[in-house]
Design brief:
Blueprint: H1 7-40, H2 56-71, H3 79-95, H4 100-112, H5 116-135, H6 142-152, H7 157-162, H8 185-188, H9 197-200
Organism: Desulfolutivibrio sulfodismutans
Transmembrane segments: 20-40
Protein name: Lipoprotein
Length: 201
């Protein structure tokens, strides 16, 4: 006589199958939600820009970009023109790879200590702006130079004061109140070497 399969046995098999299907669905849903969560997260922020090392290679590379940027700019005439010119020709080539303020602060500090590459870098940026103005027949007061450097972003107040000895001195007849005090600038300002023919053009 054949054995009869009870309803309980088939019911247990059905429950096991349902549980397996439910478990598989949970696993798939978990994987999907996990992938969605991680893909929706914002990518990590890039590291902050570094200070440009005052090495021959880094300085030469930066000054090469400065020369390229200068060649693409029209000759500045007014004070506002010079602000835009300095921002495009001197600031952007530095900013494209490095932190401008920190790089200029490092250059000024090392230049004052006699670092030749820092002096070369400042001569071809900060001093070159003054040479470009002189070649164009433009003269600016100390206050106007401060405005050009600070508005363009090439210098901040601290670095401007630190190189004060390299900036034109106020006219004799100018009221003293119109010039920001920089008592030690003429003494402690970094010495900048003359520009080479390539860097001065």
């Amino acid at each position: 006589m054949p054995r009869r399969t009870g309803a309980a046995g088939s019911g247990k098999a059905g429950l096991r199958f349902i549980r397996l299907v439910a478990l598989a669905a949970i696993v798939v849903a978990g994987l999907f939600l996990g992938c969605t969560f991680f893909s929706a997260k914002e990518p990590p922020a890039p590291p902050p820009p570094a200070v440009m090392p005052m090495t021959p290679a880094a300085v030469s590379d930066c000054l090469s970009r400065v020369q390229t940027a200068k060649a693409a700019q029209p000759r500045p005439e007014s004070l506002d023109d010079f602000v835009r010119y300095v921002a495009a020709a001197y600031v952007e080539p530095v900013r494209s790879r490095y932190a401008v303020a920190e790089t200029m602060e490092t250059a000024v500090r090392l230049s004052a200590a006699g670092n030749a590459q820092a002096q070369r870098f400042l001569a071809a940026t900060v001093r070159d702006v003054q040479l470009q103005a002189a070649m164009g027949g433009r003269t600016f007061s100390v206050d106007q130079w401060r405005e050009i450097y600070l508005r363009s972003g090439l210098l901040n107040q601290d670095t401007f004061v630190a190189i004060g000895g390299e900036l034109p001195q106020p006219e004799t007849g100018r009221p003293a109140a119109s010039v920001a005090p920089a008592p030690d600038a003429a003494v402690s300002g970094p010495s900048l070497p003359p520009l080479s023919e390539d860097e001065g053009e």
